[in-house]
Amino acid sequence: MSDLSKFPITRRWPASNPQMLQLYSFPTPNGVKVSIMLEEIGLPYEPHLVKFATSDQMSPEFLSLNPNNKIPAIIDPNGPGDAPLALFESGAILIYLAEKTGQLLPQARRYEVLQWLMFQMGGIGPMFGQLGYFHVSTGKDIDDPRPKERYREEAARLLGVLDGALAGRDWIAGDYTIADIAIAPWLRTLRDFYKAGDMTGWDALRHVPAYLDRFLERPAVQRGLTIPARD
């Protein structure tokens, strides 16, 4: 039986079932990557809500798991060698879960999948997030238009890259993989939360809108988008 008591985070978010994977998250684009993945692969897990409104991510308990104070993070009580594994960074978690279960990272296309995962981690996530900051968050009150335009332009460029790569295929690496789980939640956020579709040429894209619709139709995606449940 796994003992998670050595992890300080469990004092703030106790595990009801310490034999299950523990997820510490909030339903942001990065957070739902992992809840969607867990729903897709069917691995039992216990979600814990990390509330930004009360700065839970800055608490000593959370920082003991992720010193970078970002969600999501996990503890897998059944990690390599049957020892508990603590892990942060959504991309690393997706790769770990795919390798643990043998799902959504096909060996024949492994590096193609990983390149698109890194495309999201290094491009789509940071650039879309910065556009959101300057368009709908605190940065919208900055008078200088150049930062927003910089990120709007780059977001539009990245959408064009993605649109071209999706020509003739339903999913970015052929089959549905962790790359899609990483990319599509950010597309949803750009379109629906940031309301930045018009300024980034969304309606002129030939393949991305239908790609996002296919993703959002998946039952596991619909479940994962609401986990952890907000208070």
TrEMBL record:
- Source domain of life: Bacteria
Domain (GST C-terminal) ranges: 106-231
Domain GST N-terminal, by residue range, is 18-105
InterPro entries found in the cross-reference section:
Glutathione-S-Trfase_C-like (IPR010987), Glutathione-S-Trfase_C_sf (IPR036282), Glutathione_S-Trfase (IPR040079), Glutathione_S-Trfase_N (IPR004045), GST_C (IPR004046), Thioredoxin-like_sf (IPR036249)
- Pfam families in alphabetical order: GST_C, GST_N
What protein family does this chain belong to? Belongs to the GST superfamily.
Q: What is this protein called?
A: Glutathione S-transferase family protein
